[in-house]
Amino acid sequence: MAKKVNKRSNRYPVGFQRDAVERMKHCKDIGKLAEELGVSRGALYLWKRRLEGLPSYRDAARRGRPASADDPQAKRIRELEAQVATLEGELGRRSLEASFFKSALRRVEGCAGRATSLAEQHLRRDRRLGGARPIDSPAAV
User: Fold this and answer.
1) Which domain holds residue 100?
2) How far apart are CA 49 and CA 82, in angstroms?
């Protein structure tokens, strides 16, 4: 059976969540941080648990086992899964940045091509009208 996708968990990018948790580590008032970021305190604590590789309290209760397993192998698996999720998020961001810069480069190259053709048109027009005049010449003033 397919796993049910929780749309709410994808509301904020992984990088935003990771940065929020990092700020949370150095923050004295989590409530103010949550308010500043526009999220709930519970979301911050949930993101922290996920980044530590622990299931949410709700998921742990549903599985019928305590939220913090003492099994070192299970803990290592959770840590590696959290690391994979972080790296996948980073890869997604880098891919998005690369496509953005490719698009920007295409636009800049397109504008440069149009600018060159416009300059050529102006030069041809100036030649037809008697040649190009320097900007600082008395006839141009």
Assistant:
1) 9-128
2) 10
In this structure, the number of other CB atoms found within 10 A of the CB of residue 49 comes to: 20
Handedness of CA 55, 57, 61, 64 (dihedral sign): positive
At 3-54, the pLDDT tens digits run: 554 555 557 888 888 888 888 888 888 888 888 889 888 888 888 888 887 7
Name every residue whose Cβ is closer than 8 Å to that of residue 39 and which is 6 or more positions away in sequence: 12, 20
CA dist 75 and 54 (Å) reads 8
The rounded distance, in Å, linking the Cα atoms of 26 and 30 is 10
Strand, helix or coil for residue 137: coil
- With 0-12 / 13-18 / 19 or more C-beta atoms within 10 angstroms meaning exposed / middle / buried, residue 82 is middle
pTM: 0.40
* Any domain includes 135: no
Q: Is residue 61 part of a domain?
A: yes
Q: Measure the CA–CA gap between 99 and 77, rounded to whole angstroms.
A: 33
Task: For residue 103, tell me if it sits in a domain.
Answer: yes
